[in-house]
Write a structure and sequence with these properties.
single chain; 456 residues; alpha/beta; Spore Coat Polysaccharide Biosynthesis Protein SpsA, Chain A; UDP N-Acetylglucosamine Acyltransferase, domain 1; 2 domains; 20-stranded parallel sheet; 8 helices; elongated; binds uridine-diphosphate-N-acetylglucosamine; binds calcium ion
Length: 456
């Protein structure tokens, strides 16, 4: 069955009190609209049309890279009018799935069921029973339970307002029929708008079957109209991702205190402490442990590695059985082989550290390759930047670097070399030898400290 998706995103979002169009607001690291588009990913749709509003040109501008068709709705004349703007680009034989750019948590599985319920010929509505249906269109059924029509709250009488089954707005319908129905809409209602919801009574009148489907969870159909709702959806998303991890076998110290902002793959018996933030693509090997208040962004972590609290690791590959942190900063381009130890207040940038090496305290190591079994003492700094260009430091296998050493790159330290503490290394240090640069220690016998002059 050929499928076209129409996402309505022409709302101004006045209640956000923002200069940013509503659908560009971020939720878990992606815009609201991108969440909706992502949910359509598994549907095999032939096209995605996004209807954006007058003054909303920033939306196609910001998301220019997406493989979608942008349609401007110049005047905001109602949901029926909005869908009609996209229809000229959709063949009659397609099923049209209507979604909303400000309803971000819709799940693919729900949409699969909805499209299946439409069956290519019929109309399928996503509906939900709410304890408080205020503000929503109500689903009106007849004595046999068949759907008759949708009535908007503002047009509803008291009995209809008592109905608790509401229209989520999300529906699937055959494009040919939808084109006919939308052309016949009028705006003779309380809001003077062209209501998409009026197509339901038209379908019923033509004997087109109307089915309803319920979402897996209410949060899937809840929108974002203000920043309170944005925060609520963020919380819903957080809980949903936490449940996914728990189901996949991850231990969470507190499912309410973890943020997942991208796809995560986790092995067996992974443990994540409170305040962990996982962004972008994160892969955690078996038995990885992540301590409190740690951020991992686009990181691959090997099995049995432990990352201690308050660390920040971005665009990096961490090997197996490593120990990182607490308070470690690992910046893009860093690759750690197995059994590497990175300790507190150590910053790594574009550093490749081979197996068994240790950088345990207060160091900056950037644009550097470090061999196997190297020990880098506290306070070591690679001076990789001369104010104009970056240069590399190469430290070969089995080197021992004494504390408080500076390497003025470009510089190479040969295998097995020892660098004396407090050295400033400006030239290559030969393999196997002790190299140091240090002013000789002096003692001035009999020297006296100055004393304060007595006041007169
Ligand atoms: C609509 C439904 C209502 C449903 C509710 C669910 C209609 C007539 N009513 O009401 O039955 O219970 O959604 O939230 O469809 N939009 C445009 N262009 C327009 C008008 C709207 O893009 O001209 C977009 C808005 O940005 C928004 C969505 O469509 O994302 C819904 O529009 P809104 O006016 O908020 O509809 P509701 O009154 O909430
Ligand atoms: Ca609304």
């Amino acid at each position: 069955m050929a499928l076209s998706i129409v996402i309505l995103a022409a709302g101004q979002g006045t209640r956000m009190r923002s200069d940013l169009p509503k659908v560009l607001h971020p939720l878990a690291g992606r815009t609201l609209l991108e969440h909706v588009i992502a949910a359509t990913g598994g549907l095999g749709a032939d096209a995605v049309h996004i209807v954006y509003g007058h003054g909303g040109a920033l939306v196609p501008e910001r998301l220019a890279g997406l493989a979608v068709t942008w349609v401007e709705q110049r005047e905001r004349l109602g949901t029926g009018h909005a869908v009609a703007q996209a229809l000229p680009g959709i063949p009659d034989a397609h099923t049209v799935l209507v979604l909303y750019g400000d309803v971000p948590l819709i799940e693919t599985q729900t949409l699969v069921r909805l499209v299946a319920a439409a069956g290519g010929r019929g109309l399928a509505l996503l509906t939900v029973e709410l304890p408080d249906p205020t503000g929503y269109g109500r689903i009106v059924r007849d004595g046999t339970g068949a759907v008759r029509r949708i009535v908007e709250e503002k047009d509803a009488g008291p009995a209809e307002r008592g109905l608790r089954e509401v229209n989520t707005g999300i529906l699937a319908a055959p494009a040919g029929a939808l084109r006919r129905w939308l052309a016949a809409l009028d705006c003779d209602n309380a809001q003077g708008e062209y209501y998409l919801t009026d197509v339901v009574a038209m379908a019923v009148g033509e004997g087109v079957p109307v089915a309803t489907v319920a979402p897996g969870a209410v949060e899937e159909v809840q929108g974002v109209n203000d920043r309170i709702q944005l925060a609520e959806r963020e919380r819903d998303h957080r809980r949903r991702e936490a449940r996914r991890l728990l189901r996949a076998g991850v231990t969470l110290a507190d499912p309410d205190r973890i943020d997942v902002r991208g796809p995560v793959r986790a092995g067996r018996d992974v443990i994540l402490d409170v305040g962990v933030i996982l962004e972008g693509e994160v892969e955690l090997g078996d038995r990885v442990r992540v301590g409190p208040y740690t951020l991992l962004r686009n990181v691959h972590v090997g099995a049995d590695t432990e990352i201690l609290s308050h660390s920040r690791i971005e665009d990096a590959v961490i090997g197996a059985r490593c120990r990182i942190g607490p308070f470690a900063r690992v910046r893009p381009g860093t690759e750690l082989a197995a059994e590497v130890h990175i300790g507190n207040f150590v910053e790594l940038k574009n550093a490749q550290v081979d197996a068994g090496s240790k950088i345990n305290h207060l160091s900056y190591v950037g644009d550097t390759s470090v061999g196997k079994r190297v020990n880098i003492g506290a306070g070591t700094i690679t001076c990789n930047y001369d104010g104009a260009n970056k240069h590399r430091t190469v430290i070969e296998d089995d080197v021992f670097v004494g504390s408080d050493t500076q390497f003025v790159a470009p510089v190479r330290v040969g295998a097995g070399a020892t660098i004396g503490a407090g050295s400033t290394i400006t030239r290559d240090a030969p393999a196997g030898e002790l190299t140091l640069s240090r002013a000789p220690q002096q003692t001035r016998p009999g020297w006296k400290r100055p004393v304060k002059k007595p006041r007169d």
